[in-house]
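TL;DR need structure tokens for one chain.
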Amino acid sequence: MKAIVSVKNAVKNYSLGAVEVPALRGVTLDVVEGDFLAIAGPSGSGKTTLLNLIGCVDTPTSGTVEVAGKDTRQLSERELTNLRLHTIGFIFQSFNLVGVLSVFQNVEFPLLLQGRLGGHERRTRVMTLLEQVGLADHARHRPNELSGGQRQRVAVARALVGSPQIVLADEPTANLDSETGERIIDLMKEMNQRDGTTFIFSTHDAKVMAHADAVIRLADGKIVGRELAGAAIAASGGH
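>> reply
TL;DR here they are.
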């Protein structure tokens, strides 16, 4: 299997006034097509920064990040936008749903941007995804009429509706009770196995790590370990 994401010696510094703050300090990581990968580490370890580099939301200060064979530092803003739109799905910790749109419209939005499907095909695709996340009967609701778990499931459907090759999820269970969190991870795992979609998610929840094929551990902007899921749970004491 070939690498769909290849990060080589990636450094990312942020400027806070006159001070340079290092967020990533030389990260090297290959992600193979179809991986179901967890990135674990405490707050401030660089998890979100790494996801943002892979997701073309940001580019490295030095080093390279290749996504679907393309070096993100060599791409124009338009090319980065196209890569995000057609190759990557995002599940944000804060959901990022559009409040004035219905559940159906929120999920349909990436398809409208892609412009590839007609109205009937869009409707079929959106309703299929809403069925899969258990929200078909909430299609006309607005986000503020939903629970946190339901909003997260809308975010999952929206991330998957465009058939992305890669789905990035930043702490996808952080705002959810444990039962709803388990259901979200199960849904992601099911789609990973059925469609071969590559999932990369950040977490500090050992229960979530248990579902991953492997766990990449970050600390202070560096990779400090890579473990298979069973070893990861043992290292976390099963909590």
